[in-house]
Amino acid sequence: MPDWLEEIDHTADLGYRVTAPSEALLFERAAVGLMRLLTDVAAVEPAEARTVTVTARDRTALLRTWLSELNFLHIHERVLFSAFEVSALTETELTATVRGEPYEASRHDLYTEIKAVTYHGLDVKQVDGTWEAQVIVDM
Amino acid sequence: MATLTKVSDACYEIAPEGGMRVPARVYATEDMLDAIASDKALQQAKNVAHMPGIVGASIAMPDIHWGYGFPIGGVAAFDTETGVISPGGVGYDINCGVRLMGSKLSRGDLDDRLPTLVDRLFSRVPTGVGASGALSVSKETVREVTEKGAQWAVQEGYGSAADVDKIEEHGRVSGANPGHVSDRAISRGTTQLGTLGSGNHFLEVGYVAEIYDEDAAQAMGLFEDQVTVIIHSGSRGFGYQVCDDYLDVMDQAMKRYGIALPDRQLACTPISSDEGQQYLGAMRSAINYAFANRQVMAHNTRRAFEETLETGPRHVGLYTIYEVAHNIAKFETHPVNGRDQEVCVHRKGATRAFGPGHPELPGAYQHIGQPVLIPGDMGRYSYVLTGTATAMQETFGSTCHGAGRRMSRRQAKKEARGRNIAQELEDRGIIVRGESKRTIDEEHSGAYKDVTNVVEACEQAGISKTVAQLRPMGVIKG
Fold this sequence. Notes:
The complex is a heterodimer.
Chain A (H helix, E strand, L loop, with lengths): L4 E5 L4 E7 L2 H16 L9 E8 L3 H19 L1 E11 L3 E10 L13 E2 L5 E5 L2 E9 L1
Antiparallel strand pairs in A: 1-2, 2-8, 3-5, 4-5, 6-8, 7-8
Chain B lengths: L4 E4 L2 E4 L9 E4 L5 H5 L3 H8 L5 E12 L6 E8 L4 E2 L11 E6 L4 H4 L3 H11 L14 H10 L1 H6 L5 H5 L17 H7 L12 E10 L2 H6 L7 E7 L2 H18 L15 E2 L3 H36 L3 H4 L2 E7 L1 E10 L2 E10 L2 E2 L18 E4 L7 E6 L1 H6 L3 E2 L9 H8 L4 H7 L3 E4 L2 H6 L8 H11 L2 E14 L1
Parallel strand pairs in B: 3-4, 18-19
Antiparallel strand pairs in B: 1-2, 2-3, 4-5, 5-13, 6-10, 7-9, 7-11, 8-9, 8-19, 12-13, 14-17, 15-16, 16-19
């Protein structure tokens, strides 16, 4: 596990904490954290790229919307992602290039289904120059 | 830990403090309290007590545990004029629930065919991550399903009217409005009817191990050694999406109604608000979707039995005993401060448990009260209970819903490391088929509290009565 990612215990669900030197990187790493709950990210080829844009009413909601969008695409289109590059970011809008490939049972081990990314305990903040976020998902 | 005042041997109360509008009340025995207080569930029960229009108390069942926003195992009722409706108070899996089926078969009738039966169930009832494929329908059909519920499934040949009679709300709530459901939710609904899903959802073939209440058991057709089936699932991606969509709608609207709460996940708006009414229309669509989903699975379960035993429905005789919802919000009439009042009851990880004589109950159960099904873990046992008059007086006609987790999923996985949980269960005569080893590891018996303590606490508090214990023989998991 990278030193910027920490799984946290929650009785019924799963969560993680992520840190980064910049806000854009925090959103990218949060996406990696989400994917790591679903699969072995190292086995996902960043073969196909797509652009994802999400909007929300504040920074915390933006993180939830971003992660929810990735989970929706994963479930609805049966794809997995392994690389994320945020190209534009404000408090209320994010655009990123995400790379991944279609899920294939022979090569990808799917651990679980994430019902949703919750607002519970969700937090995005900057402490002493480091960006931090906590995410709890419903399993 | 908050100061708990003993109300009775199985009921404790936290008096209102700060912004709490009502007390928080926990149904549990003294020796369960330490475990309950070990996570943030009691704080969450107190948070719910802050919500506008809440009446009576913010109630926690003995299986309460830390959820997101609302605790899991919580009941909260709101005044229809001054109260709120909250997607987080229902949960993502809207109308997650349990169907219990009895049969004409005894345990011995399955003999060495049990593994084949479990395999067939595993192929007939798709499980697991994003499971799809039991049947694929158009968006137009999904909209029809959301209005008709289990009755749609029966109309399409999945089961019969006798099933529908034994489902909470007769398998269909009115007031569903697919016009308030996003296209995303409808899309997710096209491929998931008849699918179990992952996490704690399961389908279990079991048998009646013990009967405690002969009269109630007889009314339900239960007899010792009888083969039973439990189906635990909900509204799948359709419901998750509805909840997700409306959390944002309400999060955004809440300020306009002057509502401020300790946790954003509690987002809510007044019941009478546009957002509240739209959520109700969408939530009821998801309720009906879940009723249809379980009805299709029940039908496919019957087919798996008939194929395995190479016989017809009459010989197997799989019939619906009852089906309950445990993540839901509904308008019901209950006593508040000594007067009957219509309230909006949110049950999140709690089961409706109407007492004897309630007009909602089918004729066969009028004298015993509503059957309630409490699944335990996959290695031990589950229970059949009935609702009581005390539940009607004290808990808005509600009781517990399950064992409640003892370990986080991470802890459970850690504990299962180096073990073969499926093999351990098989050695004890329980066949388990799961989509992933990880799910089985996360869901092993030790990860859960002993459900016996939970149902005993409810019985001691008088909010439900224990009828029978079921033990598992075969389980399919996501």
